[in-house]
Specification:
By secondary structure, this protein is an alpha/beta fold. The chain has helices at 70-83, 102-112, 127-133, 147-150, 157-167, 184-195, 219-230, 242-246, and strands spanning 7-14, 24-30, 49-53, 61-65, 90-94, 118-122, 139-144, 172-178, 203-207, 236-238. Helix 5 runs parallel beside helix 6 (184-195). The mean pLDDT is 94.
Amino acid sequence: MSDPVYVSEIFSSIQGEGMLAGRRQIFVRLMECNLDCRYCDTNFKKSDICRLESKPGSGTFLDLPQPMPLHKMSAIVKDWLLQLPGAHHSISFTGGEPLLYADTLAEWFPEIRKLLPIHLETNGTMHIALQRVKQHVDYISMDMKLPSTAGCTEQLWDLHALFLREAHGSAVSVKIVVGELTSDPEIQQVCDTISSVNAALPLFLQPLSLPDGTVGITAAHIFHLQELASSRLPDVRVIPQMHKLLGAL
């Protein structure tokens, strides 16, 4: 019997970021995080209520008691797959930071993976936790944190490098949120970190989304940052948060 986990919300939407952008997914947003990024727009604090979309893609929610057991999660996914056969490409575990629950997810993922491929969205700072689950994960989207946008109080480069080394051999991609204050040395550090493991990994530059719905970087600056990264890495792409442009969850 696996342990239950604290889930913030479960919903169906378009993946708006990274390698699987444009794919329909079931999103499982877990509570709690080990970081406090300045641009984060997610309420990841633990609560006794999980918000469950009443119907996949409806945008209306029901409240479920916490924590959530595996059998309940499996039942929800099975029901949604029956309601919308073939619509969902994969199931995305996001947060917060899902790897805080690595021991439990190591038991959950093999069962959930029988229903849909697993997409793990992570801040890429918990390489030891990744060891527990990586064999059950189909896609890893690593959010590498830049001081200029995330505003984290500690330098995370060494942890990101350790994470990428642990993820090596998996279908992993790297995303960075870039803003007008993002500097050339930061991009060089990103390139150094990726190149130290595998220069062929896709790098996604995501323009910073501001609270008023505008973008916190000029086109000229993001072009410059892409040019700089592309001189070091072969696969560098710019993708804004597509779900926000669509007004989706």
